[in-house]
Design goal:
heterodimer, A: alpha/beta, Rossmann fold, 2 domains, six-stranded mixed beta sheet, globular, B: mainly alpha, 16 helices, about 70% helix, about 0% strand
């Protein structure tokens, strides 16, 4: 079989970062080729070069045996490369048809092009099993369907090679299965698929061949059938990795966080939280599973005091807060709550501030940092240095701009800030998003240390594995509701997946509650 | 020198310097077009600004105003607010200063009278700025729109007051009666002889000391106190500030209040320091000039003092130019200011990529 893509000696630098080091890659036509690597290994850069977003500093690109010098992505599209980004490039209030036509309108008047596009899309949908209502607006579609639109868009523009960047990050396990079926149909029709991911299980499940990247370089090209998950993990990290964490046995103590009948509506009038009831005891980790965007973020924001309470009650260590007894993020901290937000750049730190300044965010009023009206820089820097040493943040340069730390080190600094204050209740959102594998082990251990120290931990994560390995109990959220509660012993990925999609017939939540004895 | 320090030097010093030189070059071309020798013109300008005692006095007198309004814009800017209502706040600040003087009894010691009047200027300017602040914080009206509308309100209000209420009885000019002399801020040319230095008469008064003190206080407040931290956090990343438990509404109100209070001090320099009565339009140009000063000064008090001096020089030197050269009108100062704003503000980073490539190239790092 001939080669669809052939990259030779691709080299790319961004400033001091050597993102791609002499990368070679060969993808056979009509195959599914996986590219794995940690965050920051250079996968996305490589694909952006292939797609014409970036120029390689050196090296050659051959597509279908033809050497290409892409000036921009239009040329890549013209030769038959399509890309589905991790964050969809769709216009929410346009219909599917309008979105697909975007950039390929075919003339000044829309009507003619639209008819042509409709016929063509119906044909594509038939051939590849990509059923979507062409007249539905994007905002009315589930994430899985939106992704289909992205794929349709690429195929409509004539893609023979489809690059997908972390396509399953936002999908339920069931939607992932659907996606893999589409892959199979595409492959049958001779489409070449390049799948970028860090989920090894998916690589093992669908790819024909896999390339492993580490620190910008290709470290291995292997046929999928000849390798294993653990071997790939080792290649990715460059050493043996402990994929499992061990939890000590701890008897849960008193209830530290209690939430009663919490409802919350966003500014568009959409109910984001519906009748949330939960409690967490000392020495317990409550995992919140769910596809992202199903109310987890709103839950964290209401609990931490960022958004006001609209209905219901939050009790922290015996202090209750309601609509009448409002709270805010500062007050919640005083009552012993700490919060590691989901998005560290948007909320967890101020990227233009120095590390020292970011390390006091939320604690800038601490008496020990202030001497009267004077917020003393030497005390602030000392605090930061202590945190950096306790959590092994590198480099331990307190004056360095927060933005200049790697994702893992930024996250460690935030965790240090929130944990070292010895809170009673710790809310954590996506603790390991965009964090390298080495730091993940460290962060997981610290979360379990908090549990060991008798704190109550609420863990929100889209990584099911993370939830399963750290939690004592799990709740599943879908569309703002808690669709399932279970003790860790009764949890498995399959049933959580069903609950994430709210397929309730497959699961009886009452039964789970009884088994557990207490309400989660 | 590490790359970061090189970058800091480029950003902090080299870039503004090159931008100003470009603005001057553009001005020179303009002068050539109207048959003025730019070198001669520059000589006249510099002589006017620094060549003789009175000129120097005027230069620093204008600089004082620009320091106040520059600091005002900067403090709002650090909170993420674009206060373009400095004009109105300065005007109303002057009203506050004057009203306090008229309210207190005339024989009061200047040691009480002047601080009270300074307080009045800050209070009035602060409240005038807090109104748009309130509308932004609690009603979501955009601060750029409301502050500029408040400039017009201030102007109209002052016309009314000076014509109908505060006008000196029996006079046609819309201005108040003269302040009693215990409310006169001493002139620098009256103070310096006590230290054995003689200086020509000029409007320069002790407000300049107040301006420099304010610059230091603003620096301390922004970078050395928890309130300054909260303001900067809000300006840089509002959602992170909310996460930290900082109330955005409160920050908007506080920042605008301080900003207005600083702008209001223009009234002290102008009225208590020089005119000694409430007059019309003493504030014109300083509020907007303050935006350019803050931009050029990188919103840092030290930079603002330097930029204010530049604008003060242009003001005074430009007036000299217009006086000396028949084919140059006073408007040329506005054109020069405009060019400085164009190259220092709008085209701020024009030279940056080139400078970075030349002076702080990325070093090859082996990954």
């Amino acid at each position: 079989m001939s080669l669809a893509i052939e990259l030779e000696n691709i080299d790319k630098r961004f400033g001091a970062v050597h993102a791609n080091v002499n990368v070679d890659l060969q993808v056979r036509e009509g195959s599914i080729h996986g590219i794995v690597g940690e965050n920051g290994a250079g996968k996305s850069t490589l694909m952006s070069i292939l797609y014409g977003f970036y120029h390689a500093d050196a090296g050659t690109i051959k597509v279908f045996d033809k050497e290409c010098h892409f000036q921009d992505s239009h040329q890549a599209i013209a030769i038959g490369i399509g890309m589905v980004h991790q964050h969809f490039m769709l216009i929410d209030n346009f219909t599917v048809l309008e979105n697909v036509m975007l950039g390929a309108e075919g003339g000044y008047l829309l009507a003619e092009g639209m008819d042509k596009a409709r016929t063509e899309l119906q044909r594509l949908a038939r051939e590849y099993g990509l059923d979507v209502d062409l007249d539905a607006t994007i905002e009315s579609l589930s994430v899985g369907l939106q992704q289909r639109v992205e794929i349709l868009k690429a195929l409509y523009k004539g893609a023979k090679i489809l690059i997908l960047d972390e396509p399953t990050g936002v999908l339920t396990p069931q939607e992932t299965d659907e996606l893999f079926k589409i892959f199979a149909a595409l492959k049958e029709q001779g489409v070449t698929i390049v799948l970028i991911t860090h989920k090894l299980r998916e690589i093992m499940a669908v790819t024909d061949a896999v390339s492993v990247m580490r620190q910008g370089a290709m470290v291995a090209h292997v046929a999928t059938e000849t390798t294993s998950e653990s071997q790939l993990a080792e290649l990715m990290v460059g050493r043996k990795v402990l994929l499992d964490v061990t939890k000590s046995d701890i008897k849960p103590g008193e209830v530290l966080l209690k939430v009663k009948q919490l409802n919350w509506q966003d500014q568009h009038g959409v109910m984001r939280l519906k009748n949330i009831n939960l409690d967490i005891r000392a020495g317990e980790v409550l995992g919140v599973a769910g596809v992202s965007g199903n109310g987890q973020s709103e839950l964290l924001q209401v609990l931490s005091g960022i958004n006001p309470i609209q209905d219901g009650c939050i009790e922290v260590h015996g202090n209750s807060f309601t609509v009448k007894q409002q709270t805010n993020a500062g007050k919640m901290r005083e009552f012993g709550m700490a919060h590691v937000p989901e998005d560290r750049h948007k909320m967890g730190m101020i990227t233009e501030f120095s590390a020292a300044e970011s390390a006091i965010l939320g604690y800038h009023k601490d008496a020990e940092l202030n001497n009267g009206i004077w917020l003393k820089p030497d005390l602030v820097e000392k605090r930061c240095l202590d945190l950096m040493q306790a959590f092994d943040v590198r480099p331990n340069d307190v004056k360095l701009k927060s933005a200049n730390f790697s994702g893992g080190n930024q996250q460690k600094l935030i965790l240090a800030r929130e944990m070292e204050h010895q809170p009673e209740v710790l809310l954590i959102g996506q603790p390991t998003r965009g964090v390298d594998v080495g730091a993940i082990e460290f962060i997981h251990q610290r979360i379990l240390d908090m549990r060991g120290a008798g704190k109550a931990v609420l863990l929100v994560s889209v990584e099911l594995e993370e939830i399963l390995s750290l939690s004592d109990r799990i709740i599943v959220m879908c569309d703002g509701e808690i669709t399932g509660r279970m003790a860790i012993e009764d949890a498995d990925e399959r049933s959580i997946g069903m609950l994430m999609a709210n397929a309730q017939q497959a699961h009886d939540p009452l039964q789970a509650n009884e088994k557990q004895g207490v309400q989660a | 020198m590490s790359r970061d320090t090189r970058l800091a030097w480029i950003n902090g010093l080299l870039l503004p310097l090159m931008n100003i030189l470009t603005a001057f070059a553009a001005t020179a071309i303009l002068f050539l077009l109207i048959n003025v020798n730019p070198i001669e013109a520059a000589k006249t300008l510099l002589y006017g600004a620094f060549g003789y005692g009175e000129g120097i006095g005027y230069t620093f007198y204008y600089t004082t105003n620009f320091i106040f309004t520059g600091l005002a814009v900067a403090i709002a800017f650090h909170a993420g607010l674009f206060n373009i209502g400095g004009e109105g706040q300065a005007y109303i600040g002057g009203l506050g200063a004057g009203l306090v003087v008229f309210m207190l009894f005339p024989g009061l010691s200047p040691w009480l009278m002047i601080p009270a009047s300074i307080f009045g200027a800050m209070l009035f300017g602060g409240i005038w700025a807090m109104a748009p602040g309130y509308l932004q914080a609690y009603r979501g009206s955009h601060i750029v729109i409301t502050t500029i509308m408040f400039n017009f309100l201030a102007a109209t209000l002052m016309v009314y007051l000076l014509v109908k209420v505060l006008r000196e009885p029996g006079k046609m000019t819309p201005q108040s009666v003269l302040f009693p002399d215990n409310a006169w801020l001493p002139f620098v040319h009256d103070v310096l002889p006590a230290f054995g230095i003689e200086m020509e008469r000029s409007p320069l008064n002790l407000s300049i000391v107040l301006a420099l003190v304010m610059a230091v206080l603003v620096w301390f407040f922004l970078w050395q106190t928890r309130w300054g931290y909260a303001i900067r956090a809000t300006g840089r990343n509002a959602s992170a500030a909310v996460y930290a438990g900082i109330s955005q509404k409160k920050i908007i109100m506080v920042a605008m209040c301080i900003s207005g209070a600083l702008a209001g001090l223009v009234g002290i320099n102008e009225l208590l320091g020089y005119h000694h009565r409430i007059i019309m339009n003493f504030h014109i140009g300083y509020g907007f000039g303050g935006i350019a000063v803050a931009l050029m000064g990188r919103n840092h008090p030290f930079g603002i003092v330097i930029a204010a001096l530049l604008f003060g020089t242009l003001y005074q030197g430009g007036a000299e130019l217009a006086f000396e050269w028949s084919n140059i009108s006073r408007d040329i100062v506005v054109v020069m200011q405009g060019l400085v704003i164009l190259f220092c503000g709008a085209l701020e980073y024009m030279y940056k990529p080139w400078l970075v490539r030349w002076l702080a190239p990325v070093k090859e790092v082996q990954a």
